[in-house]
Specification:
2 domains, about 65% helix, about 240 residues
Length: about 240
């Protein structure tokens, strides 16, 4: 029986070239997916490390508070007040100081605009006095509502709304200085350091602060209130209010 030869196979043929390109494309896709998985694992590891830091902070603060109570386990109210700030955010001290400056600024702005509208009232020097006094004065209440509408903020006074959330944050950190220091931000942040030589009118400082809120505030309502505070203060300076 005569030998039968297979037809010559050219490795330069169009079909073979298409097959080779397909293989390379598949390898590239797999490589891309592996890199994506690697990035996700890295993010999860960072979050896990962050949770470990929070756990250490909780244990340390809980122990300190317990010692203040003679070594007894604190009751539910004390435990909640102890843990809630940690659960709400993981901001650095200097970032908290910076946010307190923004909050104080917006409260002063609100009082300033209200007094422009109602000139025949005694001087109201705090946001809490404003909320108390408006209940007995309809002109003040209307003026405050107009200011809130102009600034696009909620002034209802409900516990989970703009003013009480900011006031609570300010009260929780009232012992901190108003002047922040320059402090490098964690690796991975867009900013290499806090631009604290800038005033509150600075777009750079506003962007920095918004970045810190986005990456270090876990409580959604708190994050929204703080972000809105930054926007209002920045726009205040932009519009020379």
């Amino acid at each position: 029986m005569p030998l039968q030869f297979l037809p010559n196979i050219s490795f330069d043929s169009a079909a073979n070239q298409k097959f080779t390109e397909g293989v390379h494309q598949s390898i590239a896709e797999v490589d891309g997916k592996l890199k994506d998985i690697g990035r996700r694992v890295e993010v999860l590891n960072q979050k896990f490390d962050h949770l470990q830091v929070l756990a250490d902070e909780v244990a340390e603060k809980y122990e300190r508070t317990s010692r203040k109570h003679g070594g007894r386990i604190v009751d539910g109210i004390d435990r909640k007040s102890l843990l809630q700030p940690i659960l709400d955010h993981s901001l650095e001290v200097e970032d908290i100081r910076l946010l307190c400056r923004y909050i104080q600024c917006i409260f002063k702005l609100i009082l300033k605009l209200v007094h422009r509208k109602v000139t025949d009232l005694p001087q109201i020097k705090s946001i809490t006095s404003l909320h108390k006094t408006r209940q007995q004065n309809s002109n003040l209440s209307c003026a405050y509502n107009d200011v809130a509408e102009y600034l696009n903020i909620d002034n209802s006074g409900k516990s989970d709304t703009f003013i009480p959330i900011l006031h609570s944050f300010l009260t929780d950190h009232k012992n901190l200085s108003q002047v922040p220091k320059v402090k490098p931000s964690p690796s991975g942040s867009y900013f290499s350091q806090a631009p604290t030589n800038e005033g509150l009118s600075s777009r750079l400082l506003a962007d920095y602060t918004l970045d810190r809120i986005a990456t270090h505030v876990q409580n959604v309502n708190l994050a929204v209130a703080l972000k809105n505070c930054i926007y209002v203060v920045y726009n205040m300076y932009a519009n020379n209010l």
